[in-house]
Amino acid sequence: MSNHNELLASHRVLSMLESACEYSEQILDNVPSVFVVLNQEHKVIRANKAFCDLVGCTMEGALHLDFTSYFTSENRAILLHHFSHLRASAHGDANARVKLEFAGISEDMPAKPFFWRIFKLERTSDAEGQIISIIGDDLSGLYQNELKLMSIFASIPLGLMVVNGQGTITEVLSEYCHVLLNQRKLVGESLHAVLSKHNTDMRLHLSNAFNLLHDCVGKAAHTFSARESELNAISELKIEGQDQNDKWIKPRFQPIAKNNTVDRYMVILEDITSSYLAQRQIEKADLLGKQAQALYECAIRDPLSGLYTRLFMNDSVSRLIAAARRGNIRELAVVLFDLDNFKRVNDTYGHAVGDQVIKEFGSIILQCTRDTDVAVRYGGEEFVLTVPCNDIQEQGGAVVAERIRQRLADTPIDIGNGQTLHVTTSCGVAYCRATDNLDSLIQRADKNLYVAKHKGKNQVCIEPAEGE
After folding, report:
1. Is residue 307, in this structure, part of any structural domain at all?
2. Three-class DSSP category at 104
3. Whose CA is closest to 177, among 104, 251, 235?
4. Domain that holds residue 359
5. pLDDT by residue (tens digit) across 324-338?
């Protein structure tokens, strides 16, 4: 009875072992990692489903395949080196880890990167040789994600690096730093020297900035915060490139604290080339606009009297005459002024005094007129004033002309050395008619001016409005 019970117990133990082995086999077949066991000749004596799927064969077909044949000659040499090292090791638990590409089973299939863990197994007999097991994890997905992250990160126009208190670059966290700084080697280099090389005119500002960084190391973080604004002087730095492909960067420094004191700095390099060049284009356009405006002002504005020139009058007054002929302006008057005895002023006091008289008269005309009136220095000592009126309450050309004549006669003009001079003007006024143009209107105003001169000067001769 006892022997029978022992036999039953033995069968039960064997059955449990077989179940455990079968269960272990299922576990190995279901894990996503590649698992193989190799004999002394590197032939497969056990493989899981992941390996069979990788090489495209069945479980039976995987047996006795040369595992090393799936690697390039260079990677195969590395793999055999690790096998030899493990087999020679006296440690029973010796293992190795290596990243090697598993070549495709055909030319159409690309190689895949794997992370391999290699273990030496305890052998049960000398006949089976030294058994090695290998577990491999496919890194393709991880590499793809890394490449995506790297491409995304590389596309961001930021460079990241770490510098110590002396301004030496200790870490480069973004490969874009090399592009921004146009320098292949950065670690161990002085960032101060790199930036100064491209910005000779900023060397003093750069020296002050890096002295500040050095001074703040070992001090509380708020010390840097209190002085951070001093770094604004290096907010735009030029980095010279090949073929005039220059870049402009904006460096920012963030302290890295250790025990609440500044230990080193994170440097953020921002590519501001586009915005810098755009701003320069805007400034250039503004300058050109100001220059064009200045040229235009020179063309239409008399620098001595401050009044418009004949060039401006030809266009602006012609438009007013056209509007008056269409009935859009109730009354349009043209006043022609001529300074009395002006040649005598030049001959007696000199042309400088003559210029002073013209300047003073131009100022009086501007003081006595509106923005809608057009005051022009017609030439020499002659002036033309065009006065449009739409409201019956508005003062017409004759009234304005008289006001200007009276103001000039009452104004003593300072000619220096304590002397003053009184000057008068004669005026002719003409009103626009339906058949008028600029030349005909000025001609009639000139006739009235001649009448005023003939009558004794310093007076206004008015042409009656049409119909009176």
Report:
1. yes
2. coil
3. 251
4. 301-462
5. 888 888 889 999 999
